[in-house]
Amino acid sequence: MDSTDATDPDDRPDRPRLTVGPVHDAELPALVALWQACNLVMPYNDPLDDIAFARGRSHSEVLVGRLDGRPVASVMAGHDGHRGWLYYVAVDPTCRQQGLGTDIVTAGEDWLRRHGVRKVLLMIRETNTAVKAFYEKVGYNAVPRVVMERWL
Ligand SMILES: CC(C)(COP(=O)(O)OP(=O)(O)OC[C@H]1O[C@@H](n2cnc3c(N)ncnc32)[C@H](O)[C@@H]1OP(=O)(O)O)[C@@H](O)C(=O)NCCC(=O)NCCS
């Protein structure tokens, strides 16, 4: 991004900065509430099951971004032995447009990089394609792939 672009989050030195780390047990209710507030909880996914399956593993982690100790952002990062994936990218609706979404995506990418991953992928629901503009701002490209699924 052009360093003269006034909308670059890093051009705002006084903006809030996240402290990011693995989610703590005491933060689980707040994390689920964050995901609900961000419309990320689907009827077919139990968020607590998703957290339990991913957190603290050698290949995956659930990271929380905190402002003054309060969880306001999240990302689930993990890899499948080949590519890295990001899920549950979220910023509290009252804290958006200040660069925190960029920060939490960067934190997820950093986690993947530390675990040897060279390319990161993510999926956007068809009902949420407006968020594509956000990911483009933070350096992602849409790729022509068809994702298929089957419950096991
Ligand atoms: C997407 C989300 C994480 C962005 O968080 P944020 O803190 O507002 O992001 P940032 O402030 O870092 O925004 C970075 C840039 O993207 C832009 N942007 C952010 N959200 C956007 C959106 N929904 N549509 C278009 N542009 C967006 C910002 O304006 C900013 O642009 P700028 O650099 O020109 O100022 C947040 O809106 C969110 O939690 N959404 C609901 C959950 C969701 O849809 N997650 C993604 C699931 S795939």
TrEMBL record:
PROSITE patterns: GNAT
UniProt keyword list: Acyltransferase, Plasmid, Transferase
GO molecular function, one term: acyltransferase activity, transferring groups other than amino-acyl groups
Region span, Disordered: 1-21
InterPro entries to which the protein is assigned, alphabetical: Acyl_CoA_acyltransferase, Bact_Acetyltransf, GNAT_dom
Keyword Acyltransferase: yes
N-acetyltransferase domain span: 18-152
Keyword Acyltransferase: yes
Classification via CDD domains: NAT_SF
Protein name (database record): GCN5-related N-acetyltransferase
Annotated source species: Tistrella mobilis (strain KA081020-065)
